[in-house]
Amino acid sequence: MHHHHSDADPVTTCAAVRHGRERLCARIAALQTQPDAVFIQDFPAVVAAVEADFRRVEALLERLGDVCLHPRRADYAVVLCALHRTLPQIEGGDIVLGRQVADALGAVLSVPWDAGSDLDAAAPQTSQVGAPRTRSMRAAESLH
């Protein structure tokens, strides 16, 4: 059952999601330039920012009644699980793992955002249908 709110705009939602992803990618890129000790100190805040972005996107998709909400939640769960499984090791000083995870996370978040059919109709995508999820899932699997 999909309920569309009259004030929910698919084009604005797509733009907001893409802008949030761009901010996260820039934050990850900046993190990667930091010395090891700063990277380890700042990594948990990046994980928290990813969690907050995922929650915000889910709320926007719920508001639109997007058909891809549940598959997207499953994708997010994979990413968050991988982040939380590796976070204690990174906080413990495993900088090699931390930088590998940050690289994989940046790859996942930089994949063109593919919304459900409702949003696809409103905002044309430049990527092939199905390609973003496949690439993002491969990148997420490298987090494990």
Helices and strands, in N-to-C order?
A: HHHHHH
Q: List low-confidence stretches.
A: 1-6, 117-140
C-alpha geometry: elongated
Total number of β-strand segments?
0
Number of helices: 6
* Helix-residue proportion: over 70%
Please outline the major beta sheet. none
Structural class: mainly alpha
Please give the alpha-carbon distance between the first and last residues. 34 Å
Radius of gyration over alpha carbons? 16 Å
Task: Work out the count of structural domains.
Answer: 1
Residue-averaged pLDDT? 79
Content of β-strand: under 5%
Write a structural description:
- The protein has helices at residues 10-32, 36-64, 69-91, 95-110, 117-122, 131-141.
- The chain is mainly alpha-helical and 144 residues long.
- Helix 2 (36-64) runs antiparallel to helix 3 (69-91), helix 2 packs parallel to helix 4 (95-110) and helix 3 (69-91) packs parallel to helix 6 (131-141).
- Mean pLDDT is 79; it is low at 1-6 and 117-140.
- It is 75% helix and 0% strand.
- It has one domain (10-141).
Q: What keywords describe this structure?
A:
elongated, 75% helix, disordered N terminus, mainly alpha, 144 residues, 6 helices
What's the short story on this structure?
This protein is 75% helix and 0% strand. The chain is built from 6 helices and no strands.
Topology:
Blueprint: H1 10-32, H2 36-64, H3 69-91, H4 95-110, H5 117-122, H6 131-141
